[in-house]
TrEMBL record:
Listed SUPFAM superfamilies: Carbamate kinase-like
Family designation: Belongs to the carbamate kinase family.
Domain Aspartate/glutamate/uridylate kinase: 3-291
A Pfam family hit: AA_kinase
Listed name of the protein: Carbamate kinase
Keyword Kinase: yes
GO terms of molecular function: kinase activity
Cross-referenced NCBIfam families: PRK12352.1
UniProt keyword terms in alphabetical order: Kinase, Transferase
Organism: Pseudonocardia alaniniphila
Amino acid sequence: MRKTVVVALGGNAITRSGEAGTHAEQAANARRMADSVCRARDAGWSVVIVHGNGPQIGNLSIQQDAGASQVPGLPLFCLGAMTEGQLGSLLSLALREAGGERLPGIVSVVTHTVVDAGDPAFARPTKPIGPFLDEDTARRRAQEMGWTVGEDAGRGYRRLVASPEPRRIVELDDIRCLVDHGSVVVAAGGGGVPVVEDGHLLRGIDAVIDKDLAAERLASALNANALVLVTGVPRVVLDFGTPDARDVAEMTVDEADAHASEGQFPEGSMGPKVRAAIRFVTSTGGTAIITDPERVCASLDPGGGHGATGTRIVPSLSRLGAAS
């Protein structure tokens, strides 16, 4: 019986900082990620991939605005569906190239995620999308296009959109069947297309769901054994940017909670990943890992020295005792 891991990689892993975001660049980056997934599969894991879409949906929205005089623009949730299909195809093709006949099936599922229409996030946009901008350009676009803009973890300014909490993955049962069948599944891309319940119907709503929180919701619902949150660094760093900076091999849920309360994890970077990790470990008793793309497979090896290639978030003894 294979163990299941949900791997969440950011849209920035597919369109990397400093790149133009061409198809060739994105395909090369997807191939590197596919190699890591294939190694995890070879090591005995069933793999579900959740990807972000921040750079891609932001770029697509700029294209929409530029062409609005000729073609009607589409709402943001439609752009989410479009990028989910685009990146799902990109990753599926990369996996086929990397895995060949070793992978019995690769399926990308356009996924919808239920959110609460009354979520306070709709009144306070915080999710960065699109390219990094200098302050003058960001302020000008905010004025001309009605954007909300803000600084993203000291790396520049970006457009900010609403990011409500994911409540439910609509296609959960179908994803579970695919995993049980042995397929590598790409799902909840960009956090999933945000929808709200309207009686027995679902309707799209303009937002971009955080992919790490959506990955946690999916991993917990699947009762996965591990959740790997892929970022640009091998490990979580405490006191980042100070002389006291130090990386962390392992944290209990209680320790991660305490560090988060101290403001160690900014919302624009490590905050959602640590929050997703805490939720997953608390919900399932499994292990969450934060690391970079090259170390995904090695970080899943329990004999690798407790986080030798990543930061592991594990249950606290006090919480295990309370649960028992």
